[in-house]
Specification:
The complex is a heterodimer of chains A (273) and B (160). With 273 residues, chain A is of the alpha+beta class. Helices cover 32% and strands 24% of the residues of chain A. Chain B has a five-stranded mixed sheet with strand order 2-1-5-3-4, with helices on both faces. The structure holds flavin-adenine dinucleotide and FE2/S2 (inorganic) cluster (2 copies).
Chain lengths: 273, 160
C-alpha cells in the first residue's frame, strides 16, 4: 500500500526521506501521481511538505532564492522573475503550471525539464538537505550528474544571481504542438554583454542528452565576441558538441541534431521563435 | 491501510469524507461524493477533463492527492449554474455548439471559468492558452473558442 505522510517542516521531511528508501517526496505530483494512476507506484510513502519556506520566493535582491515547492504559476505571478516567465510559461497548460514545482522539474526525465534548462544557464545552485542536518548548496550541473543514481534527499531551494539585464536570459522551446507541447528540444542562453562583447556566456540545452546539459563549446566560441554574424556562425558549428539526443515519440535523434544549430543561431540572432 | 478524514468546501457547501491515503481528488469527488462532473480521461494530466478549481485556480484532480485538499475550496461544473439559470459560459457553449460528445466539456468550462475570473476580456490567443491543457476530439476547438469569447463579453461571465 501507498501511504502519505505530511511534514510541517523541511527538517522532518528530509529526515523521513533519509530514513526510508521507499519514501518519495511529492511536490506538485504531476509526475508522481501519473505513476500512482498507472500502477507503477503502489508501495512506499509519499512525503508532503507544508513548510512555508518550501514555497518561498525571495526575488527582491541580486541573489535570488526560490523554494523547491514554488510552482510555475508562482514564477509567472512574480514581476521580479520576469526573465524566467518564458520557461515557466512553456510548461503544460494553466492547470499543470498551478501544480508543477521547480523541485519536481529538476527531477523530470528528458524531454521534460524545461525550467531546469533555464536554471542551468543561470548557473543555479541546488540546496539539498539529506537527513536532519542543514542544507548544502551544490551546482545544478553536479546535481544533474548525480540525480539518476538516486538518494539525493530533499531539495529545499534553488539559488542564482539575478541577470544584470532581464533580456540577458533568452529561452526557446521547440515543440510540435502549440501553445502547449512537449519539447523537441529547448535552449536557454545567458548572454551578459560588456562593452558590446559577450562576457561569460552560459548556454544550456534540454532534450539533447539524458539530462539538461551545458553547451561549453558554444560558450567558448562566443566568449569575448560581439554577437555578430561571424560569432553566430561559429556557435552554429560548435552547437552539437557533447550532445547525445534520444529518439523518442516526439522526435528522432537525427531530427534533433538537424534543428538544434538552426534554433541556436536564431536565438543568438534575437529572431522571434 | 486506514482511511483518512478530509474536510473541504465543495461548490460552496462544507463536506467531509474519508479517503484512501494516496487517493486522488477526482476519485473522492466521483466515487466518494457522487459529483460526476469532472471525468477520468487519461489519469496522466494530458486531457484536462478532470480539471476542477482549487481555491479558484484550475488543478488536475486526477493528479491531486485528496488529503492535500483539507480546508480547500473545491469548485466543479456541478456548481456553475445558479438554480435553473445557466452560467453565461454554459449558455454560450450551447449557443455556439461548443459541445459535441460533451466529454471534454466540464474541463473546458472549468478552464474557461478560471480564465475569465482573472481576465474578463481575453484575446483569442489568451483563450487558446487558457484551454491549452484541455483536449477536445470532436469540435476542432473553434466553437469552444468562439463560445468563450462570446461569454467574455456578456454580463455576469465573471460570476464565480
Ligand atoms: C500534461 C503535462 C504536461 C507537461 N509539460 C511539461 C513541459 O512542457 N515541460 C516540462 O519540463 N515538464 C512538463 N511536465 C512534467 C511536470 O509537470 C514538470 O516537470 C513539473 O515541474 C514536475 O514537478 P512536480 O512538482 O509536479 O513533480 P512531482 O511529480 O511532485 O515530482 C517529480 C519527481 O521529483 C521528485 N521531487 C519533487 N520535488 C522534490 C524535492 N523538492 N526534493 C526531492 N525530490 C523531489 C519526486 O520525488 C519525483 O520523483 C508536464 C506534465 C504534464 C502532466
Ligand atoms: S483525467 Fe486528469 S488530465 Fe486526463
Ligand atoms: S466535444 Fe467531444 S471531446 Fe470535446
Amino acid at each position: 500500500m501507498l501511504d502519505v505522510r505530511h511534514c510541517a517542516t523541511l527538517a522532518e521531511a528530509a529526515g523521513l526521506l533519509a530514513g526510508d528508501r521507499h519514501a518519495l517526496l511529492i511536490g506538485g505530483g504531476t509526475l508522481v501521481m501519473r505513476d500512482v494512476n498507472e500502477g507503477r507506484l503502489t508501495d512506499g510513502t509519499l512525503v508532503r511538505v507544508s513548510d512555508p519556506a518550501f514555497r518561498q520566493v525571495n526575488a527582491g535582491g541580486a541573489r535570488i532564492e526560490l523554494g523547491a515547492g514554488v510552482t510555475m504559476a508562482m514564477v509567472l505571478a512574480s514581476r521580479e522573475l520576469g526573465f524566467l516567465h518564458a520557461p515557466a510559461r512553456s510548461i503544460g497548460g494553466p492547470a499543470v503550471r498551478n501544480m508543477a514545482t521547480i523541485g519536481g522539474n529538476l527531477f523530470a526525465a528528458c524531454p521534460y525539464g524545461d525550467f531546469t534548462v533555464a536554471l542551468l544557464a543561470l548557473e543555479a545552485q541546488v540546496v539539498v538537505q539529506s537527513g536532519y542536518g542543514s542544507g548544502r548548496a551544490m551546482p545544478l550541473e553536479d546535481f544533474l550528474a548525480a540525480r539518476d543514481r538516486g538518494g539525493i534527499g530533499l531539495v529545499t531551494a534553488v539559488q542564482f544571481a539575478r541577470p544584470q539585464n532581464p533580456a540577458d536570459l533568452r529561452f526557446r522551446k521547440v515543440s510540435r504542438v502549440k501553445p502547449k507541447g512537449i519539447a523537441v528540444l529547448s535552449i536557454a542562453a545567458h548572454l551578459p554583454l560588456a562593452g558590446g562583447r559577450v562576457a561569460q556566456p552560459r548556454i544550456a540545452y534540454g532534450a539533447m542528452a539524458p539530462t539538461p546539459i551545458r553547451a561549453r563549446a558554444v560558450e567558448r566560441v562566443l566568449e569575448g565576441k560581439p554577437l555578430d554574424a561571424a560569432a553566430i556562425q561559429a556557435a552554429r558549428q560548435a552547437a552539437l558538441e557533447g550532445c547525445r539526443p534520444a529518439t523518442d515519440a516526439i522526435a528522432s535523434e537525427w531530427y534533433r541534431r538537424e534543428i538544434l544549430p538552426v534554433h541556436l543561431a536564431r536565438l543568438l540572432a534575437g529572431e522571434a521563435p | 491501510m486506514a482511511k483518512l478524514p478530509v474536510q473541504f468546501s465543495l461548490n460552496g457547501t462544507d463536506r467531509a469524507t474519508f479517503v484512501e491515503p494516496a487517493g486522488t481528488l477526482l476519485d473522492m469527488l466521483r466515487r466518494g461524493l457522487g459529483d460526476f462532473a469532472p471525468k477520468y480521461g487519461c489519469g496522466q494530466g494530458t486531457c484536462g477533463v478532470c480539471t476542477v478549481l482549487v481555491d479558484g485556480e484550475p488543478h488536475l484532480s486526477c493528479l491531486t492527492l485528496a488529503v492535500a485538499c483539507e480546508g480547500r475550496r473545491i469548485e466543479t461544473v456541478s456548481g456553475m449554474a445558479d438554480g435553473p439559470d445557466l452560467h453565461p459560459l454554459q449558455q454560450a457553449f450551447m449557443d455556439h455548439f461548443a459541445a459535441q460528445c460533451g466529454f471534454c466539456t466540464p474541463g473546458m468550462l472549468t478552464a474557461a471559468r478560471a480564465l475569465l475570473a482573472k481576465n474578463p476580456n481575453p484575446t483569442r490567443e489568451e483563450v487558446i492558452d487558457g484551454i491549452s491543457g484541455n483536449i477536445c476530439r470532436c469540435t476542432g476547438y473553434e466553437p469552444i473558442i468562439a463560445a468563450i469569447l462570446a461569454a467574455a463579453g456578456s454580463p455576469g461571465a465573471r460570476r464565480a
